[in-house]
């Protein structure tokens, strides 16, 4: 389970640069393992977070290294929750329709699979746009420890 | 941090790319460049070896999608080999094994190209 240690970081921040993805994966991986997930589930959670952050850097930040986003890990009972907090334009990736994989393979075009992966490997996804009470957009990815 | 690398060697005249490290949205352009260099030279029979690859995201999968149509149209293919289970699981999650031939060893993939070439020559 997660340490109740004040020095144990539960949030990591990164710039709008895909070079930051590796450190975000390492951060999430370490915490998901500590929480008790199997290696296979840790890989799925890490992949989903990577996909969300990759989309954010590419589509919301357009690879602008001056922009920043943060990844926060929280646990609630058996649930492991990763929130990705950004300052970009409000865009709910969960409104993107899942691709029909048969059609996808027929067209043989790259891209558009990130949200599909998030849906497949996580138990709950939600998006809260920035508001007066919460200055950042928040994409929340949750997985239950079974 | 050296996250990703790709080496090129030929095996029985077939171009083989050896991947290592982490293939994500940051490093995928390196693979796209390596595959693109081969395809531009008309080398359409390529084996990609995953033995030293520890991670792949959809950005990595997308690189193969960029080239597969063109190489197949030219009578070639991109065949994949020696994938670790954790990398195979990502391919499998989205159904990519339906689209790509995945082998346990480079030799098997190379032989497939050779036998396909022999069949075409006999026709």
Fold and architecture overview:
The complex is a heterodimer of chains A (146) and B (123). In chain A, helix 2 (39-60) runs antiparallel to helix 4. The longest helix of chain A has 22 residues, at 39-60. Chain A has 146 residues and is α+β, with helices and mostly antiparallel strands. Chain A has helices spanning 21-35, 39-60, 101-107, 114-121; strands spanning 11-15, 68-76, 79-86, 124-128, 137-144. Helices cover 36% and strands 24% of the residues of chain A. Chain A is built from four helices and five strands; from the N terminus they run E-H-H-E-E-H-H-E-E. A five-stranded antiparallel sheet of chain A has the order 1-2-3-5-4, with helices on one face. With 123 residues, chain B is α/β, with parallel strands linked by helices. Chain B is 45% helix and 30% strand. Chain B has four helices and five strands. Chain B has a five-stranded mixed sheet, with helices on both faces. In chain B, helix 1 runs parallel beside helix 2 (58-73). Chain B starts with a strand and ends with a helix.
Helices and strands in order:
The complex is a heterodimer of chains A (146) and B (123).
Chain A: E1 11-15, H1 21-35, H2 39-60, E2 68-76, E3 79-86, H3 101-107, H4 114-121, E4 124-128, E5 137-144
Antiparallel strand pairs in A: 1-2, 2-3, 3-5, 4-5
Chain B: E1 4-11, E2 14-23, H1 28-40, E3 45-56, H2 58-73, E4 77-81, H3 85-93, E5 102-103, H4 106-122
Helix pairs in contact in B: 1-2
Largest sheet of chain B: 5 strands, mixed
Largest sheet of chain A: 5 strands, antiparallel
Number of helices, where a helix is a run of at least 4 consecutive DSSP H or I residues of chain A = 4
> How would the global form of chain B be characterised?
globular
Tell me the series of helices and strands of chain B, N- to C-terminal.
Answer: EEHEHEHEH
Instruction: State the end-to-end distance of chain A.
Output: 13 Å
Biggest interface reads: A-B, 27 and 25 residues
What is the succession of H and E elements of chain A?
A: EHHEEHHEE
Residue runs with pLDDT of under 50 for 5 or more positions of chain A: none
Number of strands of chain A: 5
**Given the structure, what is the number of helices of chain B?**
4
Categorize the overall geometry of chain A: globular
Cα-to-Cα separation, first versus last residue of chain B: 51 Å
Radius of gyration of chain A: 15 Å
Oligomer: heterodimer
Beta fraction of chain B:
25-35%
């Amino acid at each position: 389970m997660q340490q109740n240690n004040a020095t144990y970081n539960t949030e990591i921040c990164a710039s709008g640069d895909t070079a930051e993805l590796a450190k975000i994966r390492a951060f999430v991986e370490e915490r998901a393992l500590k929480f008790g997930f199997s290696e296979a589930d840790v890989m799925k959670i890490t992949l989903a977070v990577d996909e969300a952050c990759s989309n954010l850097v590419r589509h919301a930040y357009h690879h602008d290294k001056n922009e920043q986003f943060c990844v926060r890990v929280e646990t609630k009972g058996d649930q492991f929750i990763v929130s990705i907090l950004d300052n970009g334009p409000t865009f709910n990736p969960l409104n993107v329709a899942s691709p029909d994989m048969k059609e996808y393979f027929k067209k043989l075009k790259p891209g558009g699979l990130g949200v599909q992966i998030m849906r497949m490997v996580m138990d709950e996804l939600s998006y809260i746009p920035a508001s007066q009470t919460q200055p950042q957009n928040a994409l929340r990815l949750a997985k239950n420890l079974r | 941090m050296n996250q990703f690398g790709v080496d090129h060697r030929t095996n029985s005249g077939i171009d083989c790319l050896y991947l290592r490290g982490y293939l994500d949205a940051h490093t995928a352009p390196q693979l796209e460049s390596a595959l693109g260099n081969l395809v531009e030279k008309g080398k359409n029979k390529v084996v990609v070896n995953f033995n030293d690859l520890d991670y792949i995201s959809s950005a990595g999968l997308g690189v193969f999608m960029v080239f597969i149509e063109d190489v197949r149209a030219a009578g070639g293919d991109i065949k994949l080999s020696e994938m670790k289970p954790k990398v195979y699981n990502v391919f499998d999650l989205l159904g990519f094994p339906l689209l790509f031939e995945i082998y346990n060893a480079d030799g098997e993939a190379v032989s497939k190209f050779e036998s396909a070439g022999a069949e075409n020559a006999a026709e």
